[in-house]
Amino acid sequence: MRHQLPPLNIAIIHGTVSQEDMLYHESADPATSSTHAIAKSLEKLGAKTTLLNIANPDFANIITQHDLIFPNMHGRFGEDGTLQGYLEYLNVPYVNSGVLASAVGMDKRVSKRIAESVGIPTIPTLREFPAQNLTVTDKQSIIKAIDGGSSVGISILPPRQEPTEALKSILEQGFSNVIQEPFIEGPTATVPVITIENKPTALTPIIVKTENKYYDADTKLHGGNKTTIHNLAVNNPSCASKIQEQAINLYRTLNCSGAIRLDYIINDKHGALFMEFNTSPGLQPESNIIKSAQIDGYNYDDIIYLLVQSALQ
Predict the structure, then answer these.
(1) Which segments of 173-295 does DSSP mark as H helices, in order?
(2) What does the pLDDT look like over 185-203, one tens digit per residue?
(3) What's the whole-number average pLDDT of the chain?
(4) Residue 203 in contact with residue 233, Cβ under 8 Å?
(5) Is 3.20.20.30 the CATH number for 8-96?
(6) Distance of alpha carbon 291 from its chain centroid, rounded?
(7) SS3 string of 122-170?
(8) Is the fold of 8-96 the same as that of 103-121+185-312?
(9) CB-CB contact of 180 with 143 (8 Å)
(10) How far apart are CA 79 and CA 193, in angstroms?
(11) pLDDT per residue over 203-224, tens digit each?
(12) Cα 43 from Cα 92, distance rounded (Å)
């Protein structure tokens, strides 16, 4: 695909408000970050770009001088509906989903309930803190901050161990709401959905296998030799087709825009179990959404072009 954008002035918003963005900032070479990759791609496609840090004191004034905003922030404020609501208030068009879908995607409790309501099997929730006390279980469980991305704010709890210290560790990271789930064995599968020609299209799901206990933050940021990528449509075509259908259904239910990414655990006994979905999927050139896109014949510039086109429609 060869594309050309109209002569747009696009501001790419970045910054380190959330724990997740701080991790990316600390681990990435600025010259090869997703922010710079997006800017390079947009300029190749014919747009003019401005890199706008969220901490800029003239943030609101600069935003309104642009034709389109390309948020490239993760976690709190960046993808929880807060930034999206602010952009709506300023009446400035932006890339990816709006307030509702972003807020739902950032809350693991709510996103699982919405997924269940449209027939998507999910990992069961054992407890929700602070509404309920976390519990000692006979088997391994996993404790998650409801609004932690990139596996930030997660702790594995061994069988019959009190959750006090694990919970304390998560709360000390600045999170306040936590869920406890059974620890389900299996690799992670991800399936992106992106609008192509006004139609939500599920890209090929991939499986991410890791040597670690689970697909943790360190593996996501520095995967390298620790991870291998597999085409789920080759390994298990019926499972791939099923979660693609589920992903499109969720996309439509929440009136999403641009790209989202659904994450699953693939378990031998239970099949594909939904964990969460992300309305601001990472856009590093080696990210999972780009790996899925490449299987389907799209390159990095194609995905950036499609995201902008979706925002302009």
Answers:
(1) 217-222, 232-235, 237-253, 288-295
(2) 999 999 999 999 999 999 9
(3) 89
(4) no
(5) no
(6) 14
(7) ECCCCEEECCCCCCCCCCCEEEEECCCCCCCCEEEECCCCCCHHHHHHH
(8) no
(9) yes
(10) 17
(11) 999 999 876 665 555 555 555 5
(12) 20
Answer for the pair 43, 82: CB distance below 8 angstroms, yes or no: no
Q: CA 238, CA 246: separation in Å to the nearest integer?
A: 12
CATH number, span 103-121+185-312 = 3.30.470.20
Look at residue 93 and give its three-state secondary structure: coil
Domains in the chain: boundaries? 8-96, 103-121+185-312, 127-182
d(CA 260, CA 278): 5
Confidence of residue 228 (pLDDT cuts 50, 70, 90): confident
Torsion of CA 97, 103, 107, 110, to 10 degrees: -100
How many other β-carbons are positioned within 10 Å of the β-carbon of residue 253? 15
Q: Is the pLDDT of residue 71 over 60?
A: yes
Q: How far is it, in rounded angstroms, from Cα 223 to Cα 86?
A: 34
Name every residue whose Cβ is closer than 8 Å to that of residue 179 and which is 6 or more positions away in sequence. 108, 109, 125, 126, 127, 128, 129, 143, 144, 146
Do the beta carbons of residue 272 and residue 264 sit within 8 Å?
yes
Where on the phi/psi map is residue 226: left (φ > 0), alpha (ψ -120 to 50), or beta?
alpha
The DSSP result for 195-229, as a single string, is EETTEEEEPPPEEEEESSSS--HHHHHH-GGGEEE
Q: State the distance between the two ends of the chain, measured CA to CA, in whole angstroms.
A: 19
Q: Which of 80, 111, 118, 102 is nearest to 253 (CA)?
A: 118
User: Which amino acid does the sequence have at 298?
Assistant: Y
Residue of 13, 35, 99 lying closest to 282 (CA atoms): 35
Q: What is the dihedral of CA 292, 258, 18, 67, to 10 degrees?
A: 130
